[in-house]
Amino acid sequence: MTDTASLTGETLEPADLIDFDSLLRGEELVLRSAVRDFVDEQIRPHIAGWYEAAHFPLEIVPELGKLGLLGMHLHGYGCAGRTAVEYGVAGAELEAGDSGLRTFVSVQGSLAMSAIAKWGSEEQKTRWLPGMAAGEIIGCFGLTEPTAGSDPSAMKTFARRDGGDWVLNGTKRWIGLANVADVAVIWAQTEEGIRGFLVPTGSRGFTATPIAPKLSMRASIQCEIELTDVRVPAEARLPDAQGLRGPFSCLNEARYGIIWGAMGAARDSFEAALAYSKARLQFDKPLAGYQLTQQKLVDMALEINKGFLLALHLGRLKDAGTLQNHQISVGKLNNVREAIAIAREARTILGGNGITLEYSPLRHANNLESVRTYEGTDEVHTLILGQRLTGLPAFR
What we know:
- The protein is of the alpha+beta class.
- The chain has 3 domains: 3-133, Orthogonal Bundle (Butyryl-Coa Dehydrogenase, subunit A, domain 1), CATH 1.10.540; 139-236, Beta Barrel (Butyryl-CoA Dehydrogenase, subunit A, domain 2); 248-390, Butyryl-CoA Dehydrogenase, subunit A, domain 3.
- The chain has helices at 3-8, 26-43, 47-53, 61-66, 84-97, 99-119, 122-133, 245-279, 291-320, 325-350, 361-373, 378-390, and strands at 75-76, 79-80, 139-142, 158-162, 165-176, 183-190, 193-200, 206-210, 222-233, 281-282, 285-286.
- The strands form 4 sheets. Strands 4-5-9-8 form a 4-stranded antiparallel beta sheet, covered by helices on one side. Strands 3-6-7 form a 3-stranded mixed beta sheet.
- Helix 2 (26-43) packs parallel to helix 5 (84-97), helix 8 (245-279) packs antiparallel against helix 9 and helix 8 (245-279) runs parallel beside helix 10.
- The longest helix has 35 residues, at 245-279.
- The radius of gyration is 21 Å and the shape is globular.
């Protein structure tokens, strides 16, 4: 809070009712400001057009690299080595711009780069990570299949040995960035169980086709990948990844980022509705002066404050090395569910104008439907938490 804000009783965060910024450290606030400035200057003026045209702006990728946002939680190999909370506050600012932007950072850093950093050889890390951190190389993460979403153990993509090589066949679906990526982390069944492979996307037999048309995540790219006798050398296999522990460890990194990102979209939706309600006159006074509007604004602000407190608590646990998997499910399930409700409620304050791309809430609501589905549906996270509470698995 600035001196001026202190004198007027106003805060820099319109939804902040609890002085949340006092809980953040200096470096976290500095990073948040840098990412917010980037979003304000390079994203907000263009996002409506990108969304309408279903265009992902590849030109911003090197800029994200310069900001140190790609693989920012990783250490070495050109990565920024930031904390979990720093990663979270950056994600919230990116998703306040658009979910597709935070999703790009997540696919690149939390999924593709994390897979290499956690499970790759030294040669693989040296070859790929520095260029990916700089935004010079784009990666994607091929786990989900047309008939294997919530149950990745049912994947049908298979990799067989052929001499000193591996030959991959199968189909992956809803794979972010696949048609612009340089390398794909492909998870496949083998005779030894599920393994991960680094597949250059220029390999013969590798085809990535964007999925269209979409009603959500339009300023982003999701593809279907066809693998037809794709041949890679033995050194393409991630040597330390065995079973589903490999991809799940990366998914948990991405799920953690969603906890913060969803609240960024919620906060932006709230701020759009608040500003509109103060300026829009109905029956000779601002909408914000009516009790029903104020109730909506208060309810939204309360959930935003609670959501950010939850995100910060989980971030501090992650930085301390004590965050448990079920706690990630608490954050992902709660914050995305609340963010969708907030975006939809914000749209109601905007009235008919809210269905245009001049305002962000309905765009956020549409995007969040995808966020709600990927990295574990509501149902999956509910069952994870149900098992934690009862000790009884109910997945099958």
